[in-house]
């Protein structure tokens, strides 16, 4: 069995419930890189929210890659060069932001070191009976400073890697089709958790980013192992020759995976790598 690249989702996959990489998983992934396997982290997170984990895994030493914003950007960890980028144009971003005004969702966009929202104090939503400060969570996770804009659509002057919305899961389940309806043929829209629904440019997903960057490096899909847990991981699991779903993954992912490993709290990545490699 030849595996030249390991592609990992972050939340729910590489990271445990405490948002940490376990010592066993860390050691296994560093060892794999030392043996010549390229490590790729692929997440819906912004690039700034992934760098600390790349540093912990010593990815800069081995030209590891970061696929951020669900495939809108690819970064070389060693040089920090941008290898691929596909974002929403200003006009596309404005149209989505204007349309979202009629929905009871918290909208978040970023530029540079800042995350922009309408109201930094309108930050809570309920998830499974627990109140979550979602704006603080996203700002801290992405290492962003917060900035308010009364009208995000009017003030937009830059390309967006994605537009993130958050709301109570029942509300999104009921309204997401209306949110995406005007853009169904022109943009991508997807759940990245049942309380997150986000917009990216057309044809942006993790598989497209992998195909654009890894195949020119001589790494074919049959030589890739992709591991994930969520709906936004489906494209990369379908693309890679070895597709691994975590035990805590959504059933949709388990149904298409070639293997199901242990959960993110039970060193599922280390377990499947030791089994297959």
From TrEMBL:
- Which Pfam families is this protein grouped with? Hydrolase_3
- Molecular-function GO terms, alphabetical: magnesium ion binding; phosphatase activity
Identify one Gene Ontology CC term for this UniProt entry: cytosol
Q: This chain belongs to which protein, by name?
A: HAD family phosphatase
Q: Give the source species.
A: Vagococcus allomyrinae
């Amino acid at each position: 069995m030849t595996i030249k690249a390991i592609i990992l989702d972050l939340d729910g996959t590489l990271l445990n419930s405490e948002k940490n990489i376990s010592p066993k998983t860390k050691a296994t992934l560093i060892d794999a890189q030392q043996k010549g396997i390229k490590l790729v982290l692929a997440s819906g997170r912004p690039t700034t929210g992934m760098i600390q984990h790349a540093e912990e895994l010593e990815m800069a030493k081995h030209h590891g890659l970061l696929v951020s914003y669900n495939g809108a950007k690819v970064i070389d960890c060693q040089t920090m060069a941008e290898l691929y980028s596909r974002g929403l144009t200003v006009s596309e971003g404005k149209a989505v932001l204007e349309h979202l005004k009629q929905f009871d969702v918290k909208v978040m966009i970023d530029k540079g070191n800042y995350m922009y929202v309408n109201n930094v104090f309108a930050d809570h939503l309920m998830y499974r009976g627990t109140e979550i400060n979602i704006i603080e969570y996203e700002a801290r996770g992405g290492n962003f400073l917060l900035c308010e804009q009364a009208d995000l659509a009017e003030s937009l002057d830059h390309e967006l890697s994605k537009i993130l919305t958050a709301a109570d899961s029942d509300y999104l389940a009921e309204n997401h089709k209306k949110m995406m309806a005007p853009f169904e043929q022109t943009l991508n829209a997807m759940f990245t958790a049942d309380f997150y629904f986000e917009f990216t440019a057309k044809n942006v997903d993790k598989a497209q980013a992998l195909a654009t960057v890894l195949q020119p490096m001589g790494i074919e899909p049959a030589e890739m192992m992709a591991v994930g847990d969520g709906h936004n991981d489906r494209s990369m699991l379908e693309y890679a020759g070895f597709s691994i779903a975590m035990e805590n993954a959504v059933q949709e992912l388990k149904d298409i995976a070639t293997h199901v490993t242990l959960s993110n709290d039970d060193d599922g990545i280390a377990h499947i790598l030791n089994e297959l490699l």
